[in-house]
UniProtKB/TrEMBL annotation:
Organism per entry: Pontibacter chinhatensis
One Gene Ontology MF term: acyltransferase activity, transferring groups other than amino-acyl groups
UniProt superkingdom: Bacteria
Domain N-acetyltransferase: 21-180
InterPro entries documented for this protein: Acyl_CoA_acyltransferase (IPR016181), GNAT_dom (IPR000182), N-acetyltransferase (IPR051531)
Keyword field: Transferase
Protein name from the UniProt record: Protein N-acetyltransferase, RimJ/RimL family
Amino acid sequence: MDEQTNERTLGTFQTFETERLLLRPTSYEDAPFVLELLNTPEWIQFIGDRNVKSIEAAKEYISTRMMPQLQRLGYGNYTVIRKSDGAKLGSCGLYDRDGLEGIDIGFAFLKEYGGQGYAFEAASKVKEAAFSIYGIRQLVAITTKDNLASQKLLEKLGLKYSRMVKLPNDNEELMFYELSL
């Protein structure tokens, strides 16, 4: 899919707004931001190195890892933008992840925007959309044992720790959270 087709297609998908934030489907124009976010020490520590080391690689990541689910299900990864100044703060979304039953709610923010309530605000909106717009009946989440900030946010969102799990082709045990309607 070329970039013009991509931008036209994205216009057909839902964008969300909160008091301070705009959440819109991640697109090629977000490639520099995606490159930055995927290479933060926190992303690499808690989510893993995606080996995205250039703008072109970021566009490929968006094209192969984000767009297909958005086109298939109508939801996916959203770039979180502060309305007051247009700053891209992080990402938040709903993911149909291999090896997990239920739809995974996930989030990642640049460190300088941590502790200001942005992740909770964005994730609350995505959670609301999951249940009210997309008809999802069960949200799940995974996090590493040492990612205490993620664990606190998941619990604040109403998800409950259930058990330890391993994703396919990964040996790391992850904490599994869930919330059903």
